[in-house]
Amino acid sequence: MSAVAETPNSVNPWRQRAAQLRIESRAFIDGRYVAAASGATFDCVSPIDGRVLAKVASCEAPDVDAAVASARRAFEQGKWSRAAPAARKKVLQKLGELMLAHKDELALLETLDMGKPIGDSLAVDVPGSARCIHWYGEAIDKVYDEIAPTGHDVLGMITREPCGVVGAVVPWNFPLLMAAWKLGPALAAGNSVVLKPSEKSPLTAIRLAQLAAEAGLPEGVLNVLPGFGHTAGQALALHMDVDVVAFTGSTRTGKRMLEFSAQSNMKRVWLECGGKSPNIVLADTRDIERAATAAAWGIFFNQGEVCTAGSRLLVQESIKDRVLEKVVEVGRTLQPGDPLDPATKLGAIVDTIQMGTVLKYIDAGRSEGASLVLGGTQTRRESGGYYVEPTVFDGVSPRMQIAREEIFGPVLSTLTFKDVDEAIRIANDTIYGLGAAVWTRDITTAHRVARALRSGSVWVNCYDNGDMTVPFGGYKQSGIGRDKSLHALDKYTELKTTWIDLS
Fold first, then answer.
1. Least CB-packed of 83, 96, 266, 350 within 10 Å?
2. How confident is the model at residue 4, as a pLDDT?
3. DSSP state of 429
4. Is the per-residue pLDDT at 6 higher than 90?
5. Are 254 and 56 in contact (CB under 8 A)?
6. Measured between alpha carbons, how far is 195 from 204 in angstroms, rounded to an integer?
7. Contacts of 405 (CB under 8 A, 6+ apart)
8. How are beta strands 27-29 and 435-439 bridged, if at all?
9. C-alpha dist (Å) from residue 147 to 55, 150, 158, 502
10. What is the pLDDT of residue 2?
11. Do residues 88 and 215 make contact, with C-beta atoms less than 8 angstroms apart?
């Protein structure tokens, strides 16, 4: 039963807007919306209530060929690739402004499409995406090339050049934000992009294409191809005229992207993949209640459909009961509600397949002997949508399936440790290395643990904080390369050395 009182349709402005919303569902190729070459479509189903939002163009290899040809043609023509950085900056800044001007529309599309609360779409996803586009637009005319420290009779120049055609394949959990993390640096550097959104949540990417055109992006520089991973995604990754693939998604699919590169033209492949992030709470933590509250939000935010979700809570034995009591208390207040109600804090799982996966992991936790202390069932069945209660397991061992595999749902595994060294061993005992956290009042311990954790991001006395100014990515099987910050430009540029004999 939802703890959030839902607003009747007659007075819920977001439901009224949803009823009036015109949804664009075609592909965007060479500056215009087009149907898939085959005419095929797939149903875009809202996880809120199971209804079909739109029939979306189901792109396949011929559509990929057309989009890549358009992107290559635009790149070679040079209207974008050879434009001055200040000119590219102007267009990207305009795009960011248009995204904010259409904030309500984009947020509504995001919530309808993947089930997150409308409050999160408005406060996190859309402004964060616009901030990313603005940031790279602002940064690009401040990135300098280099002169090598050579002798007086030679000149060694080191210059950045755009790679060419970038294939960007993004996931369903933060559809607009993950697209922005790819498009911001790739476009700022002068590349053309073919964007393949997830078939589970393609609508904001499709709408973004038109906003980019309105901002002044030349035809062919951004193409958007909705479709399935095994058709459009695979064709893009295997394409001989794609120079770079930037992918965010599962580790399993990330490995396939590397195989596709080897099978085709050895294109650059950048990956942001899975995670099983440890959140370590030491007994000397200054504010145990704050740490526990952050731990709850660290797993339940966005329904747990977050690559950096703090799905492994590692608590020192002496404070475990206090921490777990608070986590459960917070979890009880985060029962799923109507995502279109601004009061809702926990929304729907993206589709029935993912909901089934989450429920199977919960069953596995029970069967392996973990103690279920909160949630564990599907809820809001009467809505027709896909909702799972916040779920907390205690008594989890590091060998259990729920402690080792990425669930991508609101399921927390609680483990205990005796001392710092054991906490580090448990935390690093994973194939993943995307995010991690440690809570302690001792600055020496904080630095020691942060350095020992094999993770791309380590948070101290907070969880999942960040900004566009810092890189994001993983160690081990969590990926290759970094999103965000100036470091992301390394993925979308080639370094050229020009050696001039001055003798």
1. 266
2. 36
3. -
4. no
5. no
6. 12
7. 276, 361
8. unpaired
9. 53, 8, 6, 14
10. 31
11. no
The catalytic residue positions are 272, 307
| pTM of the predicted model as reported, rounded to 2 decimal places | 0.95
DSSP string, 249-299: S-HHHHHHHHHHHHHTT--EEEEE-----EEEE-TT-S-HHHHHHHHHHHH
Token look-up 């910050």 returns: 485
- State the residue for tokens 């992030």: 277
**Residue 123 in tokens:** 């406060």
Q: How far apart are CA 417 and CA 280, in angstroms?
A: 9
Residue type, 231: T
Of the candidates 290, 300, 322, 320, the residue with the CA atom closest to the CA atom of residue 439: 290
d(CA 212, CA 191): 14
In which residue are the tokens 């420290």 written?
A: 149
What are the helix (H) ranges across 8-82?
13-20, 61-77
Cα distances from 218 to residues 58, 173, 222, in angstroms, run 24, 29, 8
Amino acid identity for residue 248 in this structure: T
How many angstroms separate the CA atoms of 270 and 479, rounded?
Answer: 7
* pLDDT tens figures, 55-75: 999 999 999 999 999 999 999
Residue 357: closest CA among 252, 229, 447, 233:
252
Residue showing tokens 């993949």: 273
Query: CA-to-CA distance for 280 and 440, rounded, in angstroms?
Result: 9
pLDDT tens digit string along 113-165?
A: 999 999 999 999 999 999 999 999 999 999 999 999 999 999 999 999 999 99
User: For the chain, first and last CA: distance in Å?
Assistant: 81
Question: Phi, psi (5° rounding) for residue 375?
Answer: 70, -140
Rg of the chain, C-alpha, whole Å: 23
The token duo for 120 is 């999160």
- CA dihedral of residues 412, 416, 420, 425 (deg, nearest 10): -70
